[in-house]
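Lecture notes, part 5. Sequence design as translation. It can be helpful to think of inverse folding as translation between two languages: the language of shapes and the language of residues. The source text, in structure tokens, appears below.
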């Protein structure tokens, strides 16, 4: 008997596969009593259960936010690939069958305890090929259909899908449907009109067109705490606050204060060197005055940079910062390195940021045809 499950894979990196899975979980909560979830192969992991077990980070988000009580962590993330794993596989220390056995057993346990299961792949259908467990192969082993996630315009999305569809075909995996993600709002109707025509040659339905919501990609201080392996100096109760833009401050104090007073930068993350006491004090003073004057929260944030022990905030500045309400963080790296990391960073979901996860899930769930997902 076929398992009530579906495998979700992307056409490439950063197309919104995890976001789509959150939307699927959100939509299923109102339709199904017990929902299963697993990510057969994990790459970026976190510690859970009193730091006794390492699982994929997306598994932690799914279990904690959606209260997946009928799923055990060990089954939700059967294979985690740490540094050195690929070499061990190529050296014969890890076998294909040992990996597949873990995945099959975990899948059996989760599906037996739940009414419907979402299986989240890792990247596109070919990811994992170096250790013989790419997404297409796993879906074939588990005997489940696949949903492919793509984004972009008609041509680029279809080109990406063609490559992934070919791999699914090679392994005998049926593609149940396609979801187009991060579509410009004014292009949604056009994609619904034309993309099904493109998919007709494969007899695959379009089951969702999700409009882009840029706010979901905005980073918070929680993200930067993780990025720089540090903790906020102040404003810890605002660590989930997101920023619309990032601005490097190299100007003098007067020009910086003029910029702040325009009120166009109330949602901006500012970055400056830890030696700029004038900028630090000016930022804190502006935030305090703004909140006192408007009775509204100032949503700016500040990251200080500099390599210790020379280029770090002075003790008296640290004392002043510690009394502030706004988020201030010290990144112990050069300004160039900090800006490079920030601009290249892609915001990830965290189980502690429940509001952002649910906002994402609710947004995506509105645009997915769950009758096709559930194969009704």
């Amino acid at each position: 008997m076929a398992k009530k499950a579906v495998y979700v894979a992307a056409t490439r990196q950063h197309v919104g596969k995890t976001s789509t899975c959150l939307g699927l979980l959100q939509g299923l909560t109102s339709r199904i009593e017990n929902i299963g979830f697993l990510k057969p192969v994990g790459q970026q992991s976190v510690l859970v259960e009193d730091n006794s077990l390492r699982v994929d980070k997306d598994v932690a988000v799914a279990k904690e936010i959606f209260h997946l009580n009928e799923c055990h962590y060990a089954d939700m993330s059967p294979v985690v690939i740490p540094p050195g794993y690929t070499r061990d596989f190529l050296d014969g220390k890890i076998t294909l069958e040992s990996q597949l056995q873990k995945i099959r057993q975990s899948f059996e346990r989760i599906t037996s305890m739940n009414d419907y299961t979402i299986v989240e792949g890792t990247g596109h259908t070919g990811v994992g090929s170096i250790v013989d467990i790419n997404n297409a192969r796993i879906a074939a082993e588990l005997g489940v259909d696949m949903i492919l996630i793509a984004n972009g315009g008609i041509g680029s999305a279809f080109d990406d899908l063609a490559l992934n569809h070919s791999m699914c075909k090679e392994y005998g995996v049926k593609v149940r449907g396609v979801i187009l993600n991060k579509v410009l709002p004014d292009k949604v109707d056009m994609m619904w009109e034309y993309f099904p025509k493109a998919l007709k040659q494969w007899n695959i339905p379009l089951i969702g067109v999700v409009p882009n919501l840029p706010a979901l990609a905005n980073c918070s201080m929680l993200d930067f705490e993780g990025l720089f392996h540090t903790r906020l100096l102040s404003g810890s109760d605002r660590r989930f606050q997101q920023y619309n833009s990032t601005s490097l401050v190299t100007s003098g104090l007067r020009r910086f204060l003029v910029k702040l007073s325009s009120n166009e930068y109330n949602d901006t993350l500012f970055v400056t060197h830890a030696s700029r006491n004038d900028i630090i004090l000016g930022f804190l003073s502006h935030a305090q005055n703004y909140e006192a004057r408007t009775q509204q929260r100032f949503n700016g944030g500040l990251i200080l940079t500099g390599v210790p022990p020379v280029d770090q905030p002075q003790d008296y500045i640290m004392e002043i910062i510690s009394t502030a309400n706004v988020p201030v963080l010290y990144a112990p790296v050069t300004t160039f390195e900090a800006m490079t990391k920030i601009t290249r960073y892609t915001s990830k979901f965290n189980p502690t940021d429940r509001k952002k996860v649910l906002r994402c899930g609710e947004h995506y769930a509105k645009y997915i045809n769950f009758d096709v997902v559930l194969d009704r």
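The translated text above is only one of many valid answers, since several sequences can fold into similar shapes. Residues 5-214+351-373 form a domain with the Rossmann fold fold (CATH 3.40.50.300).
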